[in-house]
Specification:
The protein has 171 residues and is an alpha/beta fold. The protein has helices at 18-30, 78-82, 86-97, 109-114, 130-135, 160-170; strands spanning 7-11, 34-39, 45-47, 53-55, 58-59, 70-73, 101-105, 122-123, 139-140, 145-148, 151-154.
Length: 171
């Protein structure tokens, strides 16, 4: 199993994209990773854009980043909610600073911008937030997956297979 013994945080908040959450969740489980579903603390159950519920296992302020090998941020409108909670922003910032895998898809780049980790990095995202990422200091490219060290970004649900191959190889 390609991720046996690895521990990964998977963030969730209201209006998450169900494909960008559940595909990584089950792909990581299949690969043998221990996945911890983490919310902001505003609720114990969050609904996706399509109404699919997700129950969290921990709140962001209860997690010790040093115990994890990586973090995945799904898109949808959830990242705009996530960035409002300092503990969620801090998780991304601390894992990035420690050289751990930080993976974001679609609108998740919003949280990376709030964590102030994009200066000098090459990333991709859903095209609608391109300007936000450029203003945060990133070089934006239109590719299905971009790996800049252990920072991994993708554009949309169609990119999930390439995104997860990159995440698993980086772990």
């Amino acid at each position: 199993m390609e991720a046996q013994g690895k521990k990964v945080l998977l963030l969730v908040e209201e209006m998450y994209n169900e494909f960008e959450f559940w595909y990584p969740y089950y792909r990581l489980k299949e690969a043998g990773a221990d996945v911890l579903v983490v919310g902001s603390g505003s609720s114990m159950v969050y609904k996706s854009k399509g109404g699919v519920p997700c129950t969290v296992e921990a709140n962001a302020d209860e997690v010790a980043p040093a115990e994890f090998d990586g973090i995945i941020v799904p898109g949808g409108y959830a990242p705009d909610h996530m960035r409002r909670y300092p503990a969620m922003v801090s998780l991304v910032k601390e894992l990035f600073a420690a050289g751990k895998v930080v993976a974001a898809i679609c609108h998740a780049g919003w949280l990376l911008a709030s964590a102030d980790i994009l200066k000098g990095r090459t990333v991709t995202s859903f095209f609608a937030i391109k300007d936000d990422l450029i203003h945060a200091g990133a070089t934006w490219v239109d590719e299905e997956v971009v790996m800049d060290g252990k920072l991994i970004t993708s554009r949309k649900p169609d990119d999930l297979p390439a995104f997860m191959r990159a995440v698993l190889s980086a772990l």
